[in-house]
Amino acid sequence: MSAVDCVIVGGGIVGAALADVLCAEGMSVALVEARSIGAGTTACGMGHLVAMDDNAPELALTAWSVALWRELRDELPMAVEYDACGTLWLATDEEELAAIAAKVASYRGAGVRAEVLDAAALREAEPALTPNLVGALRVPDDAVVYPPLAALHFARRAQQRGARLMPGCPVAALRPDGVVLENGEVLAAGHVVLAAGVASPRLCPDLPISPRKGHLLITRRGAPVVRHQLVELGYLKSAHGSDGASVAFNAQPRVTGQLLLGSSRQPGVGSGQVEPAILERMLKRAADFLPGLDALQALRVWTGLRPATPDGLPLLGPHPRKPWLWLACGHEGLGITTATGSARLVADQLLGRASAIDARPYAPSRFEALHA
Prior knowledge:
The protein is an alpha/beta fold. Helix content is 28%, strand content 27%. It has helices at residues 13-24, 56-72, 94-109, 119-125, 147-160, 200-203, 235-238, 276-289, 335-350, and strands at residues 2-9, 29-32, 48-49, 87-91, 115-118, 135-139, 143-144, 164-166, 171-175, 178-181, 186-194, 210-219, 229-232, 246-253, 259-267, 298-308, 315-318, 325-329. Strands 1, 2, 8, 9, 10, 11, 17 and 18 form an eight-stranded mixed β-sheet that branches. Strands 5-6-4-13-14-15-12-16 form an eight-stranded mixed β-sheet, sandwiched between helices. A hairpin with a 4-residue loop joins strand 10 and strand 11 (186-194). Helix 1 packs parallel to helix 5, helix 1 (13-24) runs parallel beside helix 9 (335-350) and helix 2 (56-72) crosses helix 9. The model has no long low-confidence stretch (mean pLDDT 95).
């Protein structure tokens, strides 16, 4: 039986970032992953690093996390494809344009730069967009990365700091003094952190996490020139609802000259199969905003299952009935963005110190189901 200070179950971007932070603090860490590092939900994400203001806790965590990514940018390998392209939230009518003022105030209150573009400024910023748009909100410090290689970067840096990387090692059970691997090996640890995303309920069935399926498509090179990540302002009401399938326009320029298109949301759907009807809706919505898309060819289409919680916030902290078990899961579609902040929040709690933001909104104890 081997022993470490902390075993992290789940080698997605959140687990890898946590391993990196804990090793930098001098802890001995084992990062255990059933597949390869970053191969699960992380590999299926868009890779946006975006400040979101659905509610105050979400804005606090995303704004802090994007700032932490920005601090890391000069250390990231080129393969991570960090692109500080910023985000444009697009208004299709005067009602959406009027709502931008409140968002600007919200962002600026959290220390996030934001500015309003009128229709003429938007056309100058993104000529490929349909001329029917009435304006946009620009968040210049947002960025995008290539998620699986970002996760691998964190994991390898943790390894250089002494972490034991254990890909291809499914975990059979969690227990107060460590974990039991499916091959029967017991890995002893002072702390156990569950960061297995949508697979977390398999090891801890009382977690309020359910799958939310999303489709993505990447084009061949030669896509319309797009300089920012583009998102329709209606995204928040059409794609983040909890009932039924929905689609919304979300496009990212990639450094390869391709265009990454989303997005769809199917709450409670655990199948990874590509669904042509959903894909068709998504592409029609995208073509409404980018008319030049009709001439493009898709290179690849895929789906991902995101771990969603009932209130849309992740679980970051100790399990209320199992104080030996720490949770870092339930990030839904913001795991890439908030990997840096989530890692710091959990590490600070493990080390018994305060964080830069209040950790209480993300405490697992907020869910009654975990107290039963």
